[in-house]
């Protein structure tokens, strides 16, 4: 796999897969060292490779249903997600998505948003290749006014024009937005389309009407294969993605040097077949160790608090970043949305009871969405109801002002069906989202009530 960068940097050129072979007078790396570094690298790479799955589908596969049309183009969905959509795991069903990717290598890009009616929630969440949420535009972060925002890549060194509402700098050359626009039922589709149509993407030269710079080299995307991405070949995918993350963040310079000792570096080739058998065995054990650490962390992670955010917010906690990608790739930062949920078995009816005054504390709105396991996609059901929340038509409050939701495979009865979230007959995941969470939700003093089985 050849580097597509024109100037990857002298430090990167010094790295090669030959790092696994000892130089004269040096001792070979021990199997334990290779194993430990591989574990660390696998956890580091996991969210990036999960994101690459989406990137490949949306940018490199024109025949696929998820293709967005290439860099610098919005693909808008005006209807809520359905079980047929598999772009990402645990999608929400409250706010139709708009996807777009920007290539910032040649020049900055301008993102323009229209004036949005004050009663409509929307958010443009911008994500880098590490899966950090590095920029927000929308109702909470910048308001619903029209505006132009400038996005700048890590290697841009020119003078920036003024007049933008905000300038966002990314650590990576390639970024994406997962934009959400609230949909208030089928009759609201045209209004959502109008908001989406007002969102614009332009290279800075086009926006400023100045000569365009030379284009960046075309990207040759390696085909995504889930089995390879979760084996020793994760290194090949990581090396491809690292090309777009230069120079490395100051906090990761030493980390990258350590990774280089097992053949990891921007644009480097990785061929497992050329490695000594003992070396490959140590790498494979390191991958297994990384998977085990991820699985153990996932078992004990029941809240989104601290799982998603910027680099500064995550504090280079790579295991948490990996678990976040496994549980819900591209989750919002806590200030934007709070996430919590349950794992249940639909063969037995269960309830979620909110006591009076204890409904989810949302500035904008809240919902609970049902997913299949282990796939974590929306669950197809006769009601075509994939989520339930404060905007669900006909939702009935309890006589005391509280609220009881019913989760199960079989209807709880005609009198309760308005509050029923259908589930598979077996295991499922239910994720609650609070958009614009209160301080009580963010600091943990408000808690999601338990999922309580109904006695048979």
What features would you describe in this structure?
Residues 72-203 form the DUF1254 domain. It comes from Comamonas antarctica. Residues 345-438 form the DUF1214 domain. Pfam families: DUF1214, DUF1254. The chain is 24% helix and 22% strand. The chain has 456 residues and is of the alpha+beta class. Among the domains are: 61-208, Domain of unknown function DUF1254 (Immunoglobulin-like, Sandwich), CATH 2.60.40; 336-453, Domain of unknown function DUF1214, C-terminal domain (Jelly Rolls, Sandwich). The chain starts with 9 loop residues before the first helix and ends with a strand. The relative contact order is 0.16. The model is unreliable at 1-19 (pLDDT under 50).
Provide a count of the helices: 11
For the largest beta-sheet, the strand count, sense and barrel status come to:
5 strands, antiparallel
CATH class of the domain at 61-208 reads Mainly Beta
Average of the residue pLDDT scores: 92
Our Rg estimate from Cα atoms comes to 23 Å
Structural class based on helices, strands and sheet pairing:
alpha+beta
CATH architecture of the domain at 61-208: Sandwich
Strand order of the largest sheet: 1-2-8-4-5
Query: Distance between termini?
Result: 59 Å
From N to C, what is the helix and strand string?
Answer: HHEEEEEEEEHEHHHHHHHEEEEEEEHE
> Helicity range of the residues?
10-25%
Q: What is the CATH topology assignment of the domain at 61-208?
A: Immunoglobulin-like
The low-confidence parts are 1-19
> How much of the residues is beta strand, in percent?
15-25%
């Amino acid at each position: 796999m050849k580097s597509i960068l024109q100037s990857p940097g002298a430090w990167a050129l010094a790295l090669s897969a030959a790092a696994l072979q000892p130089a004269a007078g040096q001792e070979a790396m021990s199997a334990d060292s290779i194993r430990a570094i591989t574990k660390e690298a696998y956890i580091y790479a996991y969210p990036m490779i999960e994101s690459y799955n989406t990137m490949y589908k949306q940018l490199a596969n024109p025949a696929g249903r998820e293709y967005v049309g290439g860099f610098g183009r919005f693909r808008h969905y005006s209807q809520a997600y359905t079980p047929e959509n598999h772009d990402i795991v645990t999608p929400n069903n409250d706010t139709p998505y708009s996807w777009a990717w920007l290539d910032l290598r040649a020049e900055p890009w301008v993102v323009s948003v229209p004036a949005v009616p004050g009663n409509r929630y929307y958010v443009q969440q911008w994500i880098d290749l590490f899966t950090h949420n590095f920029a927000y535009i929308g109702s909470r972060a910048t308001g619903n006014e029209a505006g132009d925002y400038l996005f700048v890549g890590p290697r841009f060194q020119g003078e920036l024009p003024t007049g933008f509402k905000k300038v966002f700098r990314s650590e990576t050359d390639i970024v994406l937005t997962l934009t959400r626009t609230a949909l208030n039922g089928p009759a609201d589709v045209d209004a959502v389309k109008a908001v989406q149509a007002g969102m614009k993407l332009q290279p800075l030269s086009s926006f400023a009407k100045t000569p365009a710079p030379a284009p960046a080299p075309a990207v040759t995307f390696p085909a995504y294969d889930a089995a390879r991405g979760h084996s020793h070949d994760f290194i090949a995918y990581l090396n491809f993605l690292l090309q777009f993350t230069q120079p490395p963040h100051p906090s990761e310079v030493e980390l990258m040097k350590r990774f280089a000792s097992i053949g990891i570096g921007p644009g480097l080739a990785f061929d497992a077949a050329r490695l000594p058998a003992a070396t490959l065995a140590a790498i494979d054990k390191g991958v297994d160790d990384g998977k085990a650490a991820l699985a153990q962390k996932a078992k004990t992670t029941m809240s989104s608090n601290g799982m998603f955010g910027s680099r500064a917010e995550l504090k280079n906690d790579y295991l948490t970043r990996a678990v976040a990608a496994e549980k819900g790739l591209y989750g919002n930062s806590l200030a934007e949305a709070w996430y919590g949920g349950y794992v249940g078995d639909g063969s037995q009816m269960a309830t979620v009871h909110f006591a009076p005054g204890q409904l989810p504390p949302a500035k904008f709105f809240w919902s609970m969405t049902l997913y299949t396991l282990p796939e974590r996609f929306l669950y197809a059901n006769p009601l075509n109801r994939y989520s339930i929340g404060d905007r669900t038509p006909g939702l009935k409050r309890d006589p005391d002002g509280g609220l009881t939701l019913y989760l199960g495979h079989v209807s709880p009865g005609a009198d309760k069906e308005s509050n029923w979230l259908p589930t598979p007959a077996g295991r499922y995941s239910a994720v609650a989202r609070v958009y614009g969470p209160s301080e009580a939700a963010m600091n943990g003093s408000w808690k999601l009530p338990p999922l309580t089985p109904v006695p048979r």
